[in-house]
Structure prediction request, 734 residues.
Amino acid sequence: MNHKERHTGVDSPSARAISRQWRSPSPPGYIAAQTCKRCAAFFWTAFAVLLLTVLPRSSSGIDAASVWVGDIQGSGWNARDVALQLTLGTGGPTSARISIAHLEMDGMPGPLEQVVVTCARPQTQQPRLRCPDARISGRFGTLGRQSLRADVTYHTVRRSLDFDIRDLRLADGHVRIEGRWAAPGWTATIDANGLQLDALLKFATPWFSLPEGHAVAGRGDLRATVRGGAQPELIDAQVSIQALTANNAEGTLATDSLELSLETKLQAEADGWRIDASIHSGKGQAYVDPIFADMGVHPLHAALSGHWSRANEVLYMERFEFDQGGIARGIADGELAPAAATPIRSLNLTLEALELPGAYAALMQPFLLDTDFKDLITSGIITGKIALADSAPTAVDVMLQEVTARDKQGKLGIEGLRGRFTWKAADTATGAAADPASHLAWDAANAYGLSGGGAQLDFVAAGKDFRLLQPTLLPVLDGGLFIQALRVRNAGEQDMALRFEGELRPISMPLLCRAFGWPEFAGSLSGRIPEVQYDEGALSVGGTLEASAFGGQLKIAGLEMRDPLGRFPRLKADVVLRGLDLETVTGTFSFGTITGKLDGEILGLELFRWAPVRMDARLYTPADDDSRHLISQRAVKNLSSIGGGGGSVAAALQSGFLRFFENFRYRRLGLSCRLENEVCHMDGVGRAKNGAYYIVQGSGLPRIDVVGHSRRTDWPQLVEQLKAIEESGGPVVQ
Prediction:
């Protein structure tokens, strides 16, 4: 067999014609389809040149031909040291081979080197030129060394190219790409299996990379159909991800064995993309600070229909459906601008069901860990609508159905909460038809030891304003707080204003003391609460606050508080006590027993950070008190120590016949303190010898008087003495 060689350099018109159809791709979406399409076009162009150049000369006895092309380039690609070789049999070409030393294409991650393409049985039945089982090998940039198979057909009349490329290795997985290119457009189908996500991310680095400190691992499968012309027009993809593990250095993102399936269809439109997508997850866990979700317990399904605008980078959601089993389901529409400072331009959310306890554990509890609501047992369902604009709520209208929440320590709880809560963003709650009313009712509630039965609130809430629509009774222990009027304006602001008027229905003092952990004493607490106002950081009472306690009456006039919720609260008031039962008072605080009645005035009282800094206080026996007057030894000792005569009194009580008496009769008692500059100017109910004063004036036999000697007492020291008496139950003798 004669073997002759023919060498020629070619920059073929057919090669230029085919290559001119391609444009630089838009990474990353359809990069694989574009790249493989371009490769197929280039390789088949080379075969076409070889066949069309050599075949006309086959009758001249040529058995084999080699064509050295040299360097060749087209739009989006260039190749160096290209050589083609054709082996002819008696019936036509039996094999063809192309070798390329270096090939670069737009969209490929690095050059292709030492590429060899072999077509064992090229078919040249016009108008089709086909290589049914091409073998392609070489180093494909970051894809590494590859050995592929391909089926490529070029139709010379339609100028179309069909390709089927198999055995592409990518990210430790296998990829198959098949499709058609023609002058009007192209289509490709991609099948990828067993892709390792960490390796895939390394490959995708030229087009996409994770933020620093983030890592992703897992496996993925992909089936996608891509269609387009100069730009993609349709992307229809199904993605399945298994064993997804994602985390970041800050610890605010983590997943474990998460599985996801995603279906998406993107249709190109004039100014962006039409989007129809859905996602499902039924296995694994995910944490995005502070939310944790267990998809195995609460599987998630979501679907989105909408439009993405390239011009303003806004996602227009026509419909977004979500259903996470046992937590929440609903639908939404709106406009999202992910890159904007306020990403939620508008959002209308319809809650078909917010289910407790799942919603509490997954969506609420993570934000309550630093509060008293961090560990609640919950049940019930919430439905309704929520609207947002510029990432801020504008309206809320929700229905609560038998909601129960109580903490495990029993400090807080509410049973059977139901009704409708509505709110809208507005400057004021006018009570007009535009401000819808809310109605909330419950069967029982408790807070910090206080408990009560059922109640109902009818109110209007709009903006930062709140207004009670009708009087209501809030049960408290065996009594209650009757609210006649309540209105709040600009809640949470410096110019917040409050108006309140009500009445305290009798509450048993033993129950109240047990609830607060106080020493227990008898009686009840009740009284009228006149108009209370809060304006510009100051809380004031328009009239006299009256209450019943310790068997007597308390009246507080001129009550004013400034910055009550701040760091430096101040309080001013005048307090009047009438007819208090001394036995109840002294028995409560382990002071020693005193019987009789007690009147008093605390005028000009000023508190700073809840500690007295100024007052003119007098406590004394009423002139018309005809009840029995007795005072115990312990009470005598304690009063003596306060007045500075504790040592002598204690000695007298511990010696002589006085030690045999537990109680003594008295005619009257009293003590006063005018506090200024941390000094208490003290006095009693009468003058004694040598500038002293009577605290207790005895009566009958044996008679005992308690005399005070200290006219000026250091106030902090006196406070410590009173604390010591309370804690020890006995006197402090100085």
Q: What stands out?
A: Residues 550-728 form one domain. DSSP finds nine helices and 43 strands in the chain. The longest helix spans residues 31-54.
